[in-house]
Design goal:
159 residues
Length: 159
């Protein structure tokens, strides 16, 4: 199934999608591509806000983009790997039977599946600015991310 269809299906039932991804077999390249794609999309989502900030504060846009690139493409994937490891360790303490790989898939897929909301959030920050609308979209993103992640982790740790 194409990734775009899986993303849409995740909004209807995240556990089914995570189970389908786990049934495809353990392939670390798949987990890596999920986390890197999500981080690249998040980096792109920052562009409107960074352009607005550069214009309003009269700072160099290239410097802002370089910092964001470093944060989202190099640092964030490493932190997400650590978070996935930590979530699996916690799940094992309460009786989880999954693997480190399944915990990574649950987290990385949740991050990738919520990337359309991240893009919307970036557009809101860039074109409208900080405010109530931006905070609402941010909360919707956070709620969906936590829902997808926890439902996926529940499914992954049941195996």
């Amino acid at each position: 199934m194409p990734v775009s269809r899986d993303i849409a299906a995740t909004y209807r039932g995240p556990r089914k999608v995570v189970q389908r991804l786990l049934d495809m077999g353990q392939r670390e390249d798949r987990a890596l591509i999920f986390v890197m794609a999500a981080c690249v999309i998040t980096f792109i989502a920052q562009w409107p806000y960074l352009a607005r900030r550069a214009h309003l504060e009269d700072v160099e846009l290239n410097g802002l983009l370089a910092g964001s690139l470093m944060a989202w493409i190099i640092v964030a994937p490493l932190l997400l790997y650590v978070l996935a490891w930590f979530s699996h360790v916690l799940a094992r303490l309460v009786g989880g039977k999954g693997s480190y790989y399944s915990a990574r898939i649950a987290l990385f897929w949740a991050f990738l599946a919520t990337s359309p909301l991240m893009l919307l959030h970036g557009l809101m920050r860039g074109f409208i600015g900080m405010g109530t609308q931006e905070q609402i979209i941010g909360l919707v993103w956070l709620g969906c991310f936590l829902w997808f992640w926890l439902a996926g982790l529940w499914q992954a740790e049941r195996a």
